[in-house]
User: Fold L-cysteine desulfhydrase Cds1 from Martelella mediterranea DSM 17316.
Amino acid sequence: MSGDSLLTDDLDIALPACAERAWARRAIGLLQGDARRSADTHLIKPVFPGLTGLSVYLKDESTHPTGSLKHRLARSLVLYGICNGHIREGTTLVEASSGSTAVSEAYFARILHLPFIAVMPRTTSRQKIEAIERFGGQCHLVERSGEVYEAAQRIAAETGGHYLDQFTFAERATDWRGNNNIAESIFAQMENEEHPTPEWVVMSAGTGGTSATIGRYIRYRNLPTRLCVVDVENSVFYDSYVSGDRTVSRDDGSRIEGIGRPRVEPSFLPTVIDHMIRVPDAASLAAMHVLSKRIFRQVGGSTGTNFFGLCRIAAQMMHEKREGALVTLICDSGARYADTYYNPDWLKENGLDIAPYVDQLERFLDTGRLQA
Ligand SMILES: *Cc1c(COP(=O)(O)O)cnc(C)c1O
Assistant:
């Protein structure tokens, strides 16, 4: 065979077109348009008179168009699926969720005219189910939170669809070095502050994706900031962090929607976490109520977990006479939990007495004192 014929053979066979890409290019354009219409979220700085020497910042992720930090994740997961060629024209999107991610994904599925099926525990709040359906998504409810993974995988296989799989892909679908990820946004918004480099960032874990993004970014930017992850009851993250065992699992589900999991999710990265605290559910919900009163609007349960963890760190810092900045997140709004966390009957039915924690928190935030 001569070298010539390698170049001239088969010239009459046309090269393949990129027909599939016409849809992908339109889809990317629609997602970029949505991003361009959106502003960054606020970093608010409430003042607590008892916390002398400390500045507290709350990154308010409740103001995204779909009401939670999962807006960022849903956008990243959909982009990741399109850019990997897994999401095409007409692909059914399927997700396992405790609700917030599914609400945000339903929003993006509607923008892209794709069918969407959310697999969620039956205990998911009515407001989230309604939001998903309003965005044109379908809800498939299962009895136990540990059943969502298999059900989602099965439905994706049956429909020839794409399982977005937030619990696996959250940590890698987000650009870890920047691209306005939540960590880059927080640290940029801190630049003009008295203490521009926070001592601690406190965050709860659902997928673990947000804490992974923040922990990696701290290391990448070579900052002395430490990351504390807070966990809840009926969740394996804390035990796994302490023991190093990633195989622990349990049957029941977390009562704090969005965080705490029955298995150690692949996106949970313990190696970028400096400290973990387990917060009782009654303390999470007490902190949710206390913070909501002080910032004049209702926050969700996981924000309470975050805020309680932040207060624990603040108490320790004051005890050690240290000064500096502490950052945590408002993950979603309390409007989604009117029937549950904000309903005194629900608290009673679930055996949650928040009053002692409310008193402790009020005293600490007003006076800095831990004891009456
Ligand atoms: C998902 C979620 C979290 C936790 O964020 P991850 O990045 O998944 O760990 C916290 N609060 C709410 C309301 C959530 O939906």
